[in-house]
Amino acid sequence: MEQAPPSVDSVTGVEWKDVVIDSEPGVSVRIYKPQNVEKVGVLVYIHGGGFCVESASSTLFHNYLNNLSFKANMIVVSVDYRIAPYYPLPIGYEDSWAAYEWVFETNHHELWIRDHTNLSRVYMVGDSAGANIVHNLAKRVNCVTYPLKGIILVDPYFWGKDQIGSEEKRVQSIGYSLMDKVWMVACPDSSGLDDSRLNPRMDHELGELGVDKVLVTVAELDTLRDRGYY
After folding, report:
1. Tens digit of pLDDT per residue, the chain (230 long)?
2. Cα(83)–Cα(80) distance, rounded to whole angstroms?
3. Which end of the chain has fewer beta carbons closer than 10 Å to its terminal beta carbon, N or C?
4. Long-range pairs for 56-59 at CB < 8 Å and ≥24 separation?
5. Residues pairing with 31 in the sheet
């Protein structure tokens, strides 16, 4: 069920709309469609925000994905997963997985997906906490049922109990304990900072990602940089 009729960006010409994919518990996506498309690739985007803030409708992500859809000439599906602390992990993982599955529904009710996409060209992209979610979802992917062309992790939210690289220097201004607390608020049932969902170094299934192409980007001044780099 659509929440609102499509809107059109006056600069890019990209159409966008919000679609509820599961009314119970209430998972929705914001879809972007560039002009004059026939069969194009799909980019499933999962936003960042420490698992606790932001949404698919946040101005930051809306403006970015509107332009990305225009420049990449792709359908973009931005996932509005439920956030902590009211909805702690793994709810964010499950909501995002539900949205990814929804893209591949047979006899799709969403015409933008059914009529304008090539489902052999699906990518998952996320930034920060969203990149963490993308990383963890990629391990679930069955490339026969849900063919995933590649994933992009933008400044991924990875952490761990023991400091590595330049982390000790980088966290002095904010405090290492704060970084610890963010994860425990987002995932209170976690086994700790070496939970494999947070610390890929502890993930024995790391080699089982259901995708061949992975791009990881890191930012020079990001406190989490070294986790993505190493």
Report:
1. 445 679 999 999 999 999 999 988 889 999 999 999 999 999 999 999 999 999 999 999 999 999 999 999 999 999 999 999 999 999 999 999 999 999 999 889 999 999 999 999 999 999 999 999 999 999 899 777 889 999 999 999 999 988 888 877 767 656 557 778 899 999 999 999 999 999 999 998 888 788 889 999 999 888 888 888 87
2. 9
3. N
4. 56/18, 56/28, 56/29, 56/30, 56/80, 57/18, 57/30
5. 17, 77
Read off the tokens for 216: 């990881």
Q: How far apart are the first and last CA of the chain?
A: 43
CB 121 within 8 A of CB 150: no
Specify whether the CB–CB gap between 97 and 19 falls below 8 A: no
Map tokens 């996320």 to a residue: 126
Residue type present at position 45: Y
Please report where in the chains the tokens 């304008």 appear, as a residue: 116
